[in-house]
Hints:
- The complex is a heterodimer of chains A (1156) and B (353).
- Chain A has 1156 residues and is an alpha+beta fold.
- Chain A is built from 39 helices and 36 strands.
- Helices cover 44% and strands 18% of the residues of chain A.
- In chain A, strand 34, helix 27 (831-836) and strand 35 (839-843) form a beta-alpha-beta unit.
- In chain A, helix 3 (72-86) packs across helix 4 (93-127), helix 17 (592-604) packs parallel to helix 21 and helix 29 (864-902) runs parallel beside helix 33 (963-988).
- Helix content of chain B is 31%, strand content 17%.
- In chain B, strand 5 (173-179) and strand 6 form a beta hairpin.
- Chain B has ten helices and ten strands.
- The chains are: A alpha+beta (1156), B alpha+beta (353).
- Chains A and B meet through helix 4, helix 12, helix 13, strand 14 and helix 33 of A and helix 1, strand 4, helix 3, helix 7 and strand 7 of B.
Amino acid sequence: MDCSLVRTLVRxxxxxxxxxxxxxxxxVGHREPPPGTEAYIPxxxxxxxxxxxxxxxxxxxxKNLFEQFRRIANFYFLIIFLVQLIIDTPTSxxxxxxxxxxxxxxxxxxxxxxxWLRHKADSAMNQCPVHFIxxxxxxxxxxxxxxxxxxxxxxxxxxxxxDLIFLSSNRGDGTCHVTxxxxxxxxxxxxHYAVQDTKGFHTEEDIxxxxxxxxxxxxxxxxxxxxxxxxxxxxxxxxxxxxxxSENLLLRGAKLKNTEKIFGVAIxxxxxxxxxxxxxSKSQKRSAVExxxxxxxxxxxxxxxxxxxxxxxxxxVWQSEPFRDEPWxxxxxxxxxxxxxxxxxxxxxLAFMVLFNYIIPVSMYVTVEMxxxxxxxxxxxxxxxxxxxxxxxxxxxxxxxxxxxxxxxYVFTDKTGTLTENNMEFKECCIEGHVYVPxxxxxxxxxxxxxxIDMIDSSPGVSSREREELFFRALCLCHTxxxxxxxxxxxxxxxxxxxxxxCVYISSSPDEVALVEGVQRLGFTYLRLKDNxxxxxxxxxxxxxxxxxxxxxxxxxxxxxSVIVKSATGEIYLFCKGADSSIFPRVIEGKVDQIRSRVExxxxxxxxxxxxxxxxxxxxxxxxxxxxxxxxxxxLQDREKKLAEAYEQIEKDLILLGATAVEDxxxxxxxxxxxxxxxAGIKVWVLTGDxxxxxxxxxxxxxxxxxxxxxxxxxxxxxxxxxLHDVLLELSKTVLHYSGSLTRDxxxxxxxxxxxxxxIIDGAALSLIMKPREDGSSSNxxxxxxxxxxxxxxxxxxxxxxxxxxxxxxxxKFSKEHPITLxxxxxxxxxxxxxxxxxxxxxxxxxxxxxxxxxxxxVPKFKHLKKMLLxxxxxxxxxxxxxxxxxxxxxxxxxxxxxxxxxxxxxxQQTLYDTAYLTLYNISFTSLPILLYSLMEQHVSxxxxxxxxxxxxxxxxxxxxxxxxxxxxxxxxxxxxxxxFFGAYFVFENTTVTSNGQIFGNWTFGTLVFxxxxxxxxxxxxxxxxxxxWINHFVIWGSLxxxxxxxxxxxxxxxxxxxxxRMYYVFIQMLSSGPAWLAIVLLVTVSLLPDVLKxxxxxxxxxxxxxxxxxxxxxxxxxxxxxxxxxxxxxEVACRSWRGPGCPHSGHGSCLETPL
Amino acid sequence: xxxxxxARGAQQPDNTAFTxxxxxxxxxxxxxxxxxxxxxxxxxxxxxxxxxxxxxxxxIKELEYDYTGSPDTGNCSACAEAGQDGAPPPxxxxxxxxxxxxxxxxxxxxxxxxxxxxxxxxRYSVSCDNAQxxxxxxxxxxxxxxxAPYQYGAAGLPIAPCGAIADSLxxxxxxxxxxxxxxxxxxxxxxxxxxxxxxxxxxxxxxNPPLVNGSLALAFSGTAAPPSWxxxxxxxxxxxxxxxxxxxxxxxxxxxxALPTFRKLYARIRQGNYSAGLPRGDYRVHxxxxxxxxxxxxxKLVVFSSISWMGGKNPFLGIAxxxxxxxxxxxxxxxxxxxxxxQDQDDEDDSDD
Lengths: 1156, 353
């Protein structure tokens, strides 16, 4: 990120400020344009080298060190280390240098290895051969030597080496097919079009003769946006100007399919390709736990500084008497005497800081990182979240947010493809009020030649028969579906017309495929698009050919698309297909009322409806349309806006033909999952682009709304009747009045008498609420709206644009309670909200992998969210909060005795423990048990967590890291430290503790304190451990054993080459003394006693839901009130009608959800 | 250091107990029904132990006599007064009298105690050279810088043993005299001055430098004695096995104390008629009063103590065990009450359901 900025600056500097322009001009094949054209500004472009690596061999060490020390914790430890090096401090620099060195080295090795892999991948990519044209010859060159303006030839199944403008292909129609699987994950074939005027250049010589310049915008990362213009010069005429759009652009990383070869000219190379621009890192998300950890760290930093200050001040007060400052037995050197008092005080302060610096342990960061990294593997390994059908398992894109999964308060879910399968099935169509239901489906295959029309209403008359056929033709023609060819069937004219029935349709929208397949069942088969002619097979098995004149492509704002075709008889039609709300206002003729009622009825059943309309164009009208479109397409600036305006003008005065209904089945267990999430105290919001009725029906089906839910509507329709202000006030009165009467009760559970509210809001109403008003009181509406939302158990937002989804998430995220939000979705339109929410989850779905790529976690199905949150999230949160608290606790235990000892050693910064103990305490004596705990602990079993979602409420709102808990742990640490220190003090005070009368020294004293501490701290963890696998046993008892063995060894030998003997035989001597053993037992017991007492009493007096479940668990005959409503659902619940109240009965589909 | 698991779940994950987090596990629960018996058992055991420890500690006898300058027990105040400003006059000797009405059950250990002396001061406690004390000749000539200002003597000669700890070696000496009956002559009680230091310190850690021509004095040639010492280190004792760095008094002193008031073992009384203890009678401690403590407001004591398996007299452990044991039982009862009452409530709750 920084680098690109620097690069930009350098480039600006090199090219000169005046050369920095918004567009670039490219000479195709480096041929100068004929004189007389516009003045050309030379620009410098990078070569085609891709650099994804961060380091080079030379800058690795300095750059990596710099990166690592930018982290505040590492920097802190570095400062401590440097202080230890510079001034005379009580502990050797090794004690903080070694762990720091360890952490830095491990991280550097890991990053270096990753970078080495990137280097390898880069050089493989940069060196792969590329064919390009030079002086009419085909030349091979390494990819990195490619320059802007080069003409490149790409063969089938090769990836494009840079962003190319598509000049020509060997296919006659100037198209080619590409897959962009590596860019956005969509594996469908997409058609790109060669520039109209160059598509005839088929050979190297031809293409070398091309004389053209391209003007286009500077590179930008949006994969789907491109505007440019090509000027083709020919000797005779004026230059031809053609617009270039994203359909002419072939992106680096995409792969050429079904086309033998293409020619293209490089316009963006190397790091300026859209692919490279898209690899820039996303913004980092930080979890709530990390935030509280940082707050605790600051508290501890303050404690540390105040400890050091207190000691420094006391030291100088105490030393004010000269016989204490410099007794005869301990005189100072001359230089010490002469040192400035303030300098001395400052060095003393630093020395105390160093002495107590372990209170912020370097190892905590390492342990937390390791815990997150290793722990996230349990998600990827989880068999329950593996989808057999697709062969996909969960993907963890970041492990930083594991524990955030246990803190979610709001879930924002997409509907299509997330709650529903996005597996569309054509249900019916309604032509002028007559309903047609194709029903001949057998195992997903269409039975050929079966007459598949089931007339529900009376058979239509002659004129309507004409309309009916027009409707089917419209469905056959108005789409962007491609036919997946079998091998070389593209140009085989002898293909029998019947074989078209087995062809497979591909489209980016599953609705379209469903429609085309549905029409096929009704007798009209779309065959292919060839040379701009669409071929369809009608009921009489005759091939009809329509010339495709224009496609007014679909976009989410217009919510419709159109085609303009010319029939064989020369008539020009415009067919338009789109959402009812965008079609009805543009209709001037047709049986609007009948169709509208049918559409509404279908929508209420959860079907996706589309309306079809047409109009006939005369030749003159078509000419006007062409001009309008051409003008918009050539525009370099605001092309999208101009196109939209043009479309708006063209798609009007339509004649309504009919409507279609497509069913999108609910994902399995979607309802179950939503119910579980709601029981867990999570509010579920559905955000969808669909229309209200459809979305509401889905909400009923997945039990987001229940039968007794009172629906509140905040929709455009309602706002039209009253003003927004009144509607909001009225709603809030309804809701708040009620929730005011039972303020606390809604947390205690789901009592049946509690009124549920569900809110439905649509995009237009939302934008009204969000829109700042002139008088500046917009925030009032927002607050009011938030208040209403808070008291609703479920909210449905329909008709949402992608950006509005993110807006909603943001609104909740920054509301005054700052709840943790989670967004889940599967499509590109969900990416914005996935990025916005605290946790973004992508469903690896049918609409490509874009959501999954941008998410923090990706799961194959919506139902996996349940285990992800209720089990994994719960575990991770419990584990990491214990990890954080325990780390602070054990370091209070570690450092507080040191602090106390200062009062007994004349504030001389004498350490209580030996250097080896200081160094190894956090690294080896107490590190592994807590790491293993934080990976393995299961305070309740997985099954219980799944069965009883309400346990999730026990950890809501960061419950285990609240100040109360933090202070409890800190005080426990202080108490334990007091016990260790004064226990050892009174045992050792003024007496001998051995049977031979010999006296122990200060190191034995420290070792006794340390031994008691290691045992207490480890046993405290053992007390907290609920899930003892053999690994826990091994690690807990193993690390205690390791401590003993290490101490025996460390004191058992006079280590050669270490001028260091103070621990010699200290540990063994201590063990030879009876009172030392007794003191260890006593002090460990006393230290653990309050915690045991607190645990037992809390469990007895005020048990949390979790503790109740734990109590119950060993006895299966458990009698908890929580157990009764759980258990397997009775079958009538699983298969109950999913239709909302007041929904009219219809003849099919009464059980959407498959009970499993 | 932002690590992330990038492993793709492209293939079916392993179905092992570990990866599925279903390892067999023991799941103990710290509930009242387990904790209660535990508390009672621990309480009883602690009370038992505490009683034992308390009686053991009580059976140990200890006598302390301050000789810094208290006029009633002897004439050491004269020496102390004389040396008000600094060191007491050389070879000032004094005596301390006490009498035992009955047998002081032995074996008796003879300690001296200093107070307000910060052997655990950091600058003090690092001020020695381990290599020198291990007898490396090179270190003998070049003491480490930690020893400063006791590194090089006035003449520029390296000090051996260097450092503040060695320099401040306790140099009062004691002898104990016993008078069976009033009027009888005082008999010297034999003091065993061996075995007062850790065996490992005396035999492994501390070593004299290799002898030169069979002479320890020559081995130390070219070094200076610490400034406060009246004689060089090789003359600490006439016994060749107890002189130089391996002198037991020196080794005892070099093990720095943990707290500012500390005792060090001076001698064991276990020979002749005194192996069973000190018989009743009058005793006099003859003291060569050299060590200045008034300057830092310290005190000097002599201590006679008998020793059991648990060492010297220390009632703390016994009392602590008793207190903790009774606390355990008390909380056990409290919890029992809570448990029973709660259980009733729970049953009522259940019957409501």
